[in-house]
Amino acid sequence: MSFPERLWFGYRLWRVLQGPIPDSGSVQYDTHTIMLQESQHPADKADTLVHELLHIIAYEYALFDDDDHEERVVTAMANGLIQLLVRNPDLGRYLLETTNDHSRPSDLHHGSDDWHA
Q1: Residue 109 falls within a domain, yes or no?
Q2: Closest CA to 96 of 30, 26, 15, 1
Q3: What is the pLDDT of residues 90-110, one digit of tens each?
Q4: Are the CB atoms for 104 and 96 separated by under 8 Å?
Q5: pTM of this prediction?
Q6: What total of structural domains would you count in the chain?
């Protein structure tokens, strides 16, 4: 499976870039960009991607006022979610199959990058 270079969350299209950065990953909210350390092992990179996506969810829904608390919760949730999906591959398939037709605007099912409300 290919690495996702773009991801939709809400009405925003996020770019996912890989490069030589000082941390495992980071999010630039103003440019809708996720940066991942390119030298990570693929399994670590997947975990980091989920970690950064959870930061985006926390930001968009204003879940935390305390950055340290957010980091602890996001790290635990990302690690737990990856563990669940790795140990239960049918779970991931089930979630995709049962929510795919209802979770995104219909335009996105056809590969369109342009979504209009």
Answers
A1: no
A2: 1
A3: 998 999 899 886 545 554 444
A4: no
A5: 0.81
A6: 1
